[in-house]
TrEMBL record:
Its cofactor is Mn(2+). Residues 10-138 form the Aminopeptidase P N-terminal domain. This is Xaa-Pro aminopeptidase. It is an enzyme of class 3 (hydrolase). Its EC number is 3.4.11.9. It comes from the Bacteria. GO terms for molecular function: manganese ion binding; metalloaminopeptidase activity. GO terms for biological process: proteolysis. Belongs to the peptidase M24B family.
Length: 460
Protein backbone atom coordinates (compact mmCIF):
# COMPACT_ATOMS: atom_id res chain seq x y z
CA UNK A 1 0.00 0.00 0.00
CA UNK A 2 1.45 3.35 -1.03
CA UNK A 3 0.56 5.87 1.63
CA UNK A 4 2.61 8.97 1.91
CA UNK A 5 2.00 12.65 2.16
CA UNK A 6 0.57 14.25 -0.90
CA UNK A 7 1.64 17.55 -2.38
CA UNK A 8 -0.39 20.64 -1.67
CA UNK A 9 -1.18 20.93 -5.38
CA UNK A 10 -2.62 17.39 -5.42
CA UNK A 11 -4.62 18.15 -2.27
CA UNK A 12 -5.88 21.25 -4.02
CA UNK A 13 -6.88 19.30 -7.14
CA UNK A 14 -8.66 16.68 -5.05
CA UNK A 15 -10.69 19.42 -3.36
CA UNK A 16 -11.54 20.95 -6.72
CA UNK A 17 -12.60 17.60 -8.17
CA UNK A 18 -14.94 17.01 -5.22
CA UNK A 19 -16.37 20.49 -5.55
CA UNK A 20 -16.88 20.12 -9.29
CA UNK A 21 -18.72 16.84 -8.66
CA UNK A 22 -20.91 18.62 -6.10
CA UNK A 23 -21.80 21.19 -8.76
CA UNK A 24 -23.13 18.40 -10.98
CA UNK A 25 -25.13 16.17 -8.61
CA UNK A 26 -27.42 16.88 -5.67
CA UNK A 27 -27.27 13.47 -3.98
CA UNK A 28 -24.49 11.69 -2.06
CA UNK A 29 -22.10 9.30 -3.78
CA UNK A 30 -20.23 6.45 -2.14
CA UNK A 31 -17.17 5.15 -3.97
CA UNK A 32 -15.45 1.98 -2.80
CA UNK A 33 -11.74 1.39 -3.43
CA UNK A 34 -11.95 -2.40 -3.75
CA UNK A 35 -9.87 -5.16 -2.26
CA UNK A 36 -7.12 -7.42 -3.55
CA UNK A 37 -8.16 -10.70 -5.09
CA UNK A 38 -6.57 -13.97 -3.93
CA UNK A 39 -4.38 -15.83 -6.40
CA UNK A 40 -4.41 -19.36 -5.02
CA UNK A 41 -4.93 -18.94 -1.26
CA UNK A 42 -6.17 -15.93 0.69
CA UNK A 43 -2.81 -14.61 1.90
CA UNK A 44 -1.28 -14.73 -1.58
CA UNK A 45 -2.97 -11.99 -3.55
CA UNK A 46 -2.77 -10.31 -6.95
CA UNK A 47 -1.34 -6.80 -6.65
CA UNK A 48 -3.98 -4.40 -5.36
CA UNK A 49 -5.28 -1.78 -7.78
CA UNK A 50 -7.72 0.76 -6.33
CA UNK A 51 -10.84 1.66 -8.30
CA UNK A 52 -10.05 4.57 -10.61
CA UNK A 53 -13.17 6.53 -9.60
CA UNK A 54 -12.07 6.24 -5.96
CA UNK A 55 -8.51 7.30 -6.83
CA UNK A 56 -9.73 10.30 -8.77
CA UNK A 57 -11.35 11.83 -5.68
CA UNK A 58 -9.38 10.25 -2.80
CA UNK A 59 -5.90 10.46 -4.34
CA UNK A 60 -4.44 7.47 -2.45
CA UNK A 61 -4.75 3.76 -3.36
CA UNK A 62 -6.24 2.63 -0.03
CA UNK A 63 -7.48 -0.96 0.00
CA UNK A 64 -10.84 -1.81 1.60
CA UNK A 65 -11.91 1.79 1.96
CA UNK A 66 -14.86 3.87 0.86
CA UNK A 67 -15.47 7.58 0.53
CA UNK A 68 -18.80 9.34 0.81
CA UNK A 69 -18.95 12.51 -1.22
CA UNK A 70 -21.65 15.10 -0.66
CA UNK A 71 -21.70 18.83 -1.30
CA UNK A 72 -17.93 18.93 -1.78
CA UNK A 73 -17.23 17.14 1.54
CA UNK A 74 -15.47 13.80 1.84
CA UNK A 75 -15.99 11.25 4.59
CA UNK A 76 -13.50 8.40 4.72
CA UNK A 77 -14.58 4.93 5.83
CA UNK A 78 -11.88 2.40 6.59
CA UNK A 79 -10.72 0.20 9.42
CA UNK A 80 -7.47 0.60 11.27
CA UNK A 81 -4.95 -2.17 10.55
CA UNK A 82 -5.28 -5.27 12.76
CA UNK A 83 -2.62 -5.77 15.47
CA UNK A 84 -0.96 -8.56 13.49
CA UNK A 85 -0.78 -6.45 10.35
CA UNK A 86 2.34 -4.59 11.50
CA UNK A 87 4.19 -7.92 11.77
CA UNK A 88 3.53 -8.87 8.15
CA UNK A 89 3.05 -5.56 6.41
CA UNK A 90 4.90 -3.05 8.59
CA UNK A 91 3.36 -0.06 10.31
CA UNK A 92 0.53 1.36 8.22
CA UNK A 93 -0.87 4.79 8.99
CA UNK A 94 -4.10 4.78 10.96
CA UNK A 95 -7.41 6.00 9.59
CA UNK A 96 -7.07 9.40 11.27
CA UNK A 97 -3.62 10.00 9.77
CA UNK A 98 -4.83 9.03 6.30
CA UNK A 99 -7.86 11.28 6.72
CA UNK A 100 -5.52 14.19 7.42
CA UNK A 101 -3.39 13.45 4.38
CA UNK A 102 -6.33 13.44 1.98
CA UNK A 103 -8.07 16.24 3.87
CA UNK A 104 -11.17 14.21 4.70
CA UNK A 105 -13.89 16.07 6.55
CA UNK A 106 -14.62 13.01 8.73
CA UNK A 107 -13.19 9.51 9.21
CA UNK A 108 -15.12 6.50 10.46
CA UNK A 109 -14.78 2.70 10.64
CA UNK A 110 -16.34 0.69 7.81
CA UNK A 111 -19.16 -0.55 10.06
CA UNK A 112 -20.53 3.00 10.13
CA UNK A 113 -21.06 2.99 6.39
CA UNK A 114 -24.40 1.19 6.71
CA UNK A 115 -25.86 4.26 8.45
CA UNK A 116 -24.88 6.58 5.60
CA UNK A 117 -26.10 4.77 2.50
CA UNK A 118 -29.58 6.28 2.14
CA UNK A 119 -30.20 7.84 -1.29
CA UNK A 120 -26.54 7.30 -2.23
CA UNK A 121 -25.35 6.53 -5.73
CA UNK A 122 -22.39 4.32 -6.49
CA UNK A 123 -20.44 2.62 -9.28
CA UNK A 124 -19.64 -1.08 -9.15
CA UNK A 125 -16.05 -2.02 -8.36
CA UNK A 126 -14.70 -4.93 -10.43
CA UNK A 127 -13.75 -7.36 -7.65
CA UNK A 128 -16.56 -9.63 -6.48
CA UNK A 129 -15.94 -9.17 -2.75
CA UNK A 130 -16.48 -5.43 -3.14
CA UNK A 131 -19.48 -5.42 -5.46
CA UNK A 132 -21.11 -7.98 -3.18
CA UNK A 133 -20.57 -5.59 -0.26
CA UNK A 134 -21.87 -2.68 -2.31
CA UNK A 135 -24.99 -4.67 -3.21
CA UNK A 136 -25.60 -5.71 0.38
CA UNK A 137 -25.20 -2.27 1.87
CA UNK A 138 -27.24 -0.48 -0.78
CA UNK A 139 -29.82 -3.28 -0.81
CA UNK A 140 -29.85 -3.54 -4.62
CA UNK A 141 -27.70 -5.28 -7.20
CA UNK A 142 -24.54 -3.34 -7.96
CA UNK A 143 -22.90 -5.46 -10.64
CA UNK A 144 -20.03 -4.39 -12.92
CA UNK A 145 -21.81 -5.79 -15.99
CA UNK A 146 -25.25 -4.30 -15.26
CA UNK A 147 -26.38 -1.27 -17.26
CA UNK A 148 -26.32 1.80 -15.02
CA UNK A 149 -29.66 3.22 -13.95
CA UNK A 150 -31.18 6.06 -11.94
CA UNK A 151 -28.84 8.02 -9.70
CA UNK A 152 -25.97 5.60 -10.43
CA UNK A 153 -26.22 6.59 -14.09
CA UNK A 154 -26.38 10.28 -13.15
CA UNK A 155 -23.29 9.87 -10.98
CA UNK A 156 -21.45 8.05 -13.76
CA UNK A 157 -22.30 10.79 -16.26
CA UNK A 158 -21.07 13.44 -13.84
CA UNK A 159 -17.79 11.59 -13.28
CA UNK A 160 -17.36 11.09 -17.03
CA UNK A 161 -17.77 14.80 -17.61
CA UNK A 162 -14.97 15.46 -15.08
CA UNK A 163 -12.57 12.68 -16.10
CA UNK A 164 -12.99 13.25 -19.83
CA UNK A 165 -10.53 16.16 -19.70
CA UNK A 166 -7.51 16.22 -17.43
CA UNK A 167 -6.53 18.82 -14.83
CA UNK A 168 -2.89 19.90 -14.36
CA UNK A 169 -2.29 17.43 -11.55
CA UNK A 170 -3.47 14.54 -13.70
CA UNK A 171 -1.34 15.76 -16.61
CA UNK A 172 1.76 15.85 -14.42
CA UNK A 173 1.19 12.17 -13.60
CA UNK A 174 0.34 11.25 -17.19
CA UNK A 175 3.56 12.88 -18.38
CA UNK A 176 5.50 10.84 -15.83
CA UNK A 177 3.91 7.62 -17.05
CA UNK A 178 4.66 8.61 -20.65
CA UNK A 179 8.29 9.43 -19.88
CA UNK A 180 8.99 6.12 -18.16
CA UNK A 181 7.21 4.22 -20.94
CA UNK A 182 9.42 5.94 -23.52
CA UNK A 183 12.51 4.78 -21.60
CA UNK A 184 11.08 1.25 -21.41
CA UNK A 185 10.64 1.12 -25.19
CA UNK A 186 14.18 2.40 -25.80
CA UNK A 187 15.47 -0.29 -23.44
CA UNK A 188 13.47 -2.92 -25.33
CA UNK A 189 14.90 -1.84 -28.67
CA UNK A 190 18.45 -1.73 -27.32
CA UNK A 191 18.11 -5.17 -25.72
CA UNK A 192 16.82 -6.90 -28.84
CA UNK A 193 20.12 -7.73 -30.62
CA UNK A 194 21.50 -9.33 -27.45
CA UNK A 195 18.64 -11.68 -26.57
CA UNK A 196 16.96 -14.76 -27.96
CA UNK A 197 13.31 -14.64 -26.86
CA UNK A 198 10.39 -12.22 -26.63
CA UNK A 199 10.38 -12.72 -22.84
CA UNK A 200 13.81 -11.17 -22.51
CA UNK A 201 12.75 -8.02 -24.35
CA UNK A 202 9.70 -7.85 -22.13
CA UNK A 203 11.96 -8.21 -19.10
CA UNK A 204 14.17 -5.34 -20.26
CA UNK A 205 11.12 -3.12 -20.81
CA UNK A 206 9.22 -3.94 -17.63
CA UNK A 207 12.50 -3.72 -15.69
CA UNK A 208 12.63 0.00 -16.47
CA UNK A 209 9.05 0.46 -15.32
CA UNK A 210 9.57 -1.51 -12.11
CA UNK A 211 12.82 0.36 -11.39
CA UNK A 212 10.78 3.58 -11.37
CA UNK A 213 8.49 1.99 -8.78
CA UNK A 214 5.69 1.90 -11.31
CA UNK A 215 3.69 -0.99 -12.70
CA UNK A 216 2.49 -1.76 -16.19
CA UNK A 217 -0.87 -0.20 -16.94
CA UNK A 218 -2.01 -3.39 -18.77
CA UNK A 219 -0.49 -6.74 -19.62
CA UNK A 220 2.43 -6.08 -21.94
CA UNK A 221 2.33 -7.28 -25.52
CA UNK A 222 5.83 -8.12 -26.74
CA UNK A 223 5.53 -10.45 -29.67
CA UNK A 224 6.72 -11.50 -33.10
CA UNK A 225 3.07 -12.37 -33.74
CA UNK A 226 1.69 -8.86 -33.78
CA UNK A 227 -1.27 -10.13 -35.78
CA UNK A 228 -2.65 -11.51 -32.50
CA UNK A 229 -3.96 -8.19 -31.25
CA UNK A 230 -3.75 -8.87 -27.52
CA UNK A 231 -1.03 -11.50 -27.58
CA UNK A 232 0.13 -12.31 -24.06
CA UNK A 233 2.65 -15.03 -24.88
CA UNK A 234 6.33 -14.33 -24.65
CA UNK A 235 7.98 -17.67 -25.43
CA UNK A 236 8.72 -17.28 -29.14
CA UNK A 237 12.33 -17.12 -30.29
CA UNK A 238 13.45 -13.96 -32.08
CA UNK A 239 14.52 -14.74 -35.66
CA UNK A 240 16.47 -12.32 -37.86
CA UNK A 241 13.59 -11.67 -40.31
CA UNK A 242 10.98 -11.03 -37.59
CA UNK A 243 9.26 -7.83 -36.65
CA UNK A 244 8.76 -7.43 -32.91
CA UNK A 245 5.64 -5.55 -31.80
CA UNK A 246 5.83 -4.12 -28.27
CA UNK A 247 2.73 -2.53 -26.71
CA UNK A 248 3.93 -1.60 -23.22
CA UNK A 249 2.89 1.23 -20.91
CA UNK A 250 3.65 2.34 -17.37
CA UNK A 251 1.25 3.30 -14.61
CA UNK A 252 2.33 5.73 -11.89
CA UNK A 253 1.94 4.98 -8.17
CA UNK A 254 -1.19 7.13 -8.25
CA UNK A 255 -2.65 5.04 -11.07
CA UNK A 256 -2.17 7.23 -14.17
CA UNK A 257 -1.41 5.33 -17.38
CA UNK A 258 0.57 5.47 -20.60
CA UNK A 259 0.05 3.23 -23.63
CA UNK A 260 2.75 3.01 -26.32
CA UNK A 261 3.34 0.63 -29.21
CA UNK A 262 6.40 0.41 -31.40
CA UNK A 263 7.28 -2.23 -33.96
CA UNK A 264 10.91 -2.90 -34.83
CA UNK A 265 12.96 -5.36 -36.86
CA UNK A 266 14.77 -7.96 -34.76
CA UNK A 267 17.78 -7.73 -37.11
CA UNK A 268 17.93 -3.94 -36.84
CA UNK A 269 16.94 -3.59 -40.52
CA UNK A 270 13.42 -3.63 -41.98
CA UNK A 271 13.06 -5.73 -45.12
CA UNK A 272 11.76 -3.72 -48.08
CA UNK A 273 8.26 -5.19 -47.70
CA UNK A 274 8.23 -4.52 -43.95
CA UNK A 275 9.42 -0.98 -44.54
CA UNK A 276 6.76 -0.35 -47.18
CA UNK A 277 3.96 -1.32 -44.84
CA UNK A 278 5.59 0.41 -41.87
CA UNK A 279 5.62 3.67 -43.78
CA UNK A 280 1.93 3.29 -44.65
CA UNK A 281 1.06 2.86 -40.96
CA UNK A 282 3.28 5.78 -40.00
CA UNK A 283 1.65 7.98 -42.66
CA UNK A 284 -1.76 7.19 -41.14
CA UNK A 285 -0.42 7.92 -37.63
CA UNK A 286 1.05 11.28 -38.69
CA UNK A 287 -2.00 12.34 -40.70
CA UNK A 288 -4.29 11.66 -37.71
CA UNK A 289 -2.15 13.65 -35.28
CA UNK A 290 -1.81 16.53 -37.73
CA UNK A 291 -5.60 16.78 -37.90
CA UNK A 292 -6.26 16.77 -34.15
CA UNK A 293 -7.63 19.92 -32.59
CA UNK A 294 -10.69 20.84 -30.53
CA UNK A 295 -13.97 20.27 -32.34
CA UNK A 296 -12.68 17.60 -34.71
CA UNK A 297 -14.65 14.34 -34.50
CA UNK A 298 -12.55 11.41 -33.31
CA UNK A 299 -14.61 9.22 -35.64
CA UNK A 300 -13.32 11.31 -38.55
CA UNK A 301 -9.77 10.75 -37.33
CA UNK A 302 -10.48 7.02 -37.48
CA UNK A 303 -11.81 7.32 -41.03
CA UNK A 304 -8.77 9.38 -41.99
CA UNK A 305 -6.49 6.59 -40.76
CA UNK A 306 -8.57 4.06 -42.68
CA UNK A 307 -8.32 6.14 -45.85
CA UNK A 308 -4.56 6.70 -45.59
CA UNK A 309 -4.04 2.98 -45.01
CA UNK A 310 -6.34 2.07 -47.91
CA UNK A 311 -4.50 4.51 -50.21
CA UNK A 312 -1.11 3.14 -49.09
CA UNK A 313 -2.24 -0.40 -49.80
CA UNK A 314 -3.58 0.65 -53.21
CA UNK A 315 -0.19 2.24 -53.97
CA UNK A 316 1.51 -1.02 -53.01
CA UNK A 317 -0.87 -2.99 -55.25
CA UNK A 318 -2.44 -4.92 -52.36
CA UNK A 319 -5.86 -3.24 -52.57
CA UNK A 320 -7.55 -2.37 -55.87
CA UNK A 321 -9.72 0.68 -56.40
CA UNK A 322 -10.30 4.11 -54.93
CA UNK A 323 -9.33 4.60 -51.25
CA UNK A 324 -12.57 6.38 -50.31
CA UNK A 325 -14.70 3.65 -51.89
CA UNK A 326 -12.61 0.94 -50.24
CA UNK A 327 -13.17 2.52 -46.81
CA UNK A 328 -16.89 2.83 -47.47
CA UNK A 329 -17.02 -0.90 -48.14
CA UNK A 330 -14.78 -1.59 -45.08
CA UNK A 331 -11.99 -3.16 -47.14
CA UNK A 332 -9.38 -1.38 -44.95
CA UNK A 333 -10.67 -3.40 -41.97
CA UNK A 334 -9.30 -6.59 -43.50
CA UNK A 335 -5.91 -5.24 -42.38
CA UNK A 336 -6.84 -2.56 -39.80
CA UNK A 337 -9.73 -4.17 -37.92
CA UNK A 338 -9.64 -2.10 -34.71
CA UNK A 339 -10.39 1.52 -33.88
CA UNK A 340 -7.80 4.28 -34.14
CA UNK A 341 -7.59 4.54 -30.35
CA UNK A 342 -9.29 5.38 -27.08
CA UNK A 343 -9.37 7.66 -24.07
CA UNK A 344 -6.40 7.40 -21.72
CA UNK A 345 -6.24 8.45 -18.08
CA UNK A 346 -6.45 6.47 -14.86
CA UNK A 347 -7.45 3.46 -16.95
CA UNK A 348 -5.64 2.50 -20.11
CA UNK A 349 -9.03 2.39 -21.84
CA UNK A 350 -10.27 5.20 -19.67
CA UNK A 351 -13.61 4.62 -17.92
CA UNK A 352 -14.41 1.54 -19.99
CA UNK A 353 -15.87 0.05 -16.80
CA UNK A 354 -18.84 2.29 -17.71
CA UNK A 355 -19.29 0.66 -21.12
CA UNK A 356 -19.48 3.28 -23.86
CA UNK A 357 -20.73 6.05 -21.55
CA UNK A 358 -17.37 7.82 -21.63
CA UNK A 359 -16.32 6.89 -25.15
CA UNK A 360 -19.53 7.75 -26.97
CA UNK A 361 -21.20 11.14 -27.06
CA UNK A 362 -24.74 10.95 -25.67
CA UNK A 363 -27.16 9.68 -28.30
CA UNK A 364 -24.49 7.81 -30.28
CA UNK A 365 -24.11 4.07 -30.42
CA UNK A 366 -21.57 1.66 -31.79
CA UNK A 367 -21.85 0.90 -35.45
CA UNK A 368 -22.24 -2.72 -36.50
CA UNK A 369 -20.06 -2.12 -39.57
CA UNK A 370 -16.97 -4.35 -39.85
CA UNK A 371 -14.77 -1.26 -40.21
CA UNK A 372 -16.31 0.80 -37.38
CA UNK A 373 -17.55 -1.60 -34.71
CA UNK A 374 -14.36 -1.52 -32.64
CA UNK A 375 -14.19 2.25 -32.48
CA UNK A 376 -13.92 2.94 -28.72
CA UNK A 377 -14.22 6.72 -28.86
CA UNK A 378 -16.79 8.67 -30.83
CA UNK A 379 -16.89 12.26 -29.63
CA UNK A 380 -15.69 15.66 -30.74
CA UNK A 381 -12.21 16.37 -29.33
CA UNK A 382 -11.92 18.85 -26.45
CA UNK A 383 -8.88 20.54 -24.92
CA UNK A 384 -7.54 18.42 -22.06
CA UNK A 385 -8.61 15.08 -23.54
CA UNK A 386 -5.84 12.49 -23.80
CA UNK A 387 -6.30 9.85 -26.48
CA UNK A 388 -4.19 7.25 -28.19
CA UNK A 389 -3.53 7.24 -31.91
CA UNK A 390 -2.67 3.68 -32.88
CA UNK A 391 -3.12 2.68 -36.50
CA UNK A 392 -1.92 -0.75 -37.54
CA UNK A 393 -1.65 -3.32 -40.28
CA UNK A 394 -2.17 -7.00 -39.48
CA UNK A 395 -2.50 -10.22 -41.41
CA UNK A 396 -4.95 -11.99 -39.13
CA UNK A 397 -5.62 -15.55 -40.35
CA UNK A 398 -9.13 -15.51 -38.82
CA UNK A 399 -9.98 -12.52 -41.04
CA UNK A 400 -8.05 -13.28 -44.21
CA UNK A 401 -9.14 -16.94 -44.29
CA UNK A 402 -12.76 -16.17 -43.44
CA UNK A 403 -14.79 -17.49 -46.39
CA UNK A 404 -17.46 -14.79 -46.16
CA UNK A 405 -14.95 -11.91 -46.01
CA UNK A 406 -12.80 -13.46 -48.67
CA UNK A 407 -15.65 -13.67 -51.14
CA UNK A 408 -16.99 -10.21 -50.22
CA UNK A 409 -13.61 -8.62 -50.90
CA UNK A 410 -12.49 -11.04 -53.61
CA UNK A 411 -12.23 -8.35 -56.27
CA UNK A 412 -10.58 -5.59 -54.27
CA UNK A 413 -7.62 -7.55 -52.90
CA UNK A 414 -4.71 -8.68 -55.05
CA UNK A 415 -4.11 -11.87 -53.06
CA UNK A 416 -1.03 -12.79 -55.02
CA UNK A 417 0.56 -9.41 -54.38
CA UNK A 418 -0.39 -9.69 -50.71
CA UNK A 419 1.49 -12.99 -50.46
CA UNK A 420 4.71 -11.10 -51.17
CA UNK A 421 4.25 -9.37 -47.78
CA UNK A 422 4.33 -12.56 -45.76
CA UNK A 423 7.08 -11.25 -43.49
CA UNK A 424 4.66 -8.63 -42.12
CA UNK A 425 2.46 -10.22 -39.44
CA UNK A 426 1.53 -7.14 -37.49
CA UNK A 427 2.66 -3.53 -37.25
CA UNK A 428 1.21 -0.92 -34.89
CA UNK A 429 2.50 2.53 -33.99
CA UNK A 430 0.81 4.01 -30.91
CA UNK A 431 1.32 7.37 -29.22
CA UNK A 432 -0.50 9.28 -26.48
CA UNK A 433 -1.85 12.58 -27.73
CA UNK A 434 -3.20 15.43 -25.63
CA UNK A 435 -5.74 17.76 -27.22
CA UNK A 436 -4.67 21.35 -26.55
CA UNK A 437 -6.41 24.69 -27.18
CA UNK A 438 -4.68 25.07 -30.53
CA UNK A 439 -4.11 21.50 -31.67
CA UNK A 440 -2.38 18.65 -29.93
CA UNK A 441 0.72 17.62 -28.02
CA UNK A 442 2.20 14.12 -28.28
CA UNK A 443 3.15 13.18 -24.70
CA UNK A 444 5.20 10.25 -25.99
CA UNK A 445 7.02 12.24 -28.72
CA UNK A 446 10.42 11.55 -27.13
CA UNK A 447 10.20 8.03 -28.55
CA UNK A 448 11.08 8.16 -32.25
CA UNK A 449 8.82 6.34 -34.69
CA UNK A 450 10.37 6.86 -38.12
CA UNK A 451 11.85 3.66 -39.57
CA UNK A 452 15.45 4.89 -39.79
CA UNK A 453 15.65 6.08 -36.20
CA UNK A 454 13.91 2.97 -34.92
CA UNK A 455 16.54 0.88 -36.73
CA UNK A 456 19.29 3.00 -35.18
CA UNK A 457 17.86 2.50 -31.70
CA UNK A 458 17.83 -1.27 -32.20
CA UNK A 459 21.39 -1.18 -33.52
CA UNK A 460 22.52 0.84 -30.49
N1 LIG B 1 -2.62 -1.54 -24.93
C1 LIG B 1 -3.95 -1.77 -25.34
C2 LIG B 1 -4.36 -0.84 -26.37
O1 LIG B 1 -3.54 -0.32 -27.07
O2 LIG B 1 -5.50 -0.54 -26.53
MN1 LIG C 1 -4.11 1.73 -26.84
MN1 LIG D 1 -1.48 -0.14 -26.54
Amino acid sequence: MVIHNISSSLANSLRQRRQRLANLIDFPAILWSGSSSPRNFPANVFPFRASSHFLYFAGLPLPKAAIRLEAGKLELFMDDPSPSSALWHGEIPKREEIAQIIEADAAKPLTELEFCVAEAATIAVQDAATWTQQSQLLNRWVLPQNPLQGIDLELAKAIVSLRLTHDEEALTELRKAAGVSVEAHKAGMAATPNVKREAEVRGAMEGVIIAHNMTTSYNSIVTVHGEVLHNEQYHHPLQPGDLLLADVGAETEMGWAADITRTWPVSGKFSSTQRDIYDVVLAAHDACIAKMRPGVEYGDIHLLAATVIAQGLVDLGILLGNAQDLVEMDAHALFFPHGIGHLLGLDVHDMEDLGDLAGYEEGRERSDRFGLGYLRLNRPLRPGMLVTIEPGFYQVPAILNNAHLRSKFENVVNWERLSQFNDVHGIRIEDDVLVTQEGSEVLTAALPNDADTVENLVNG
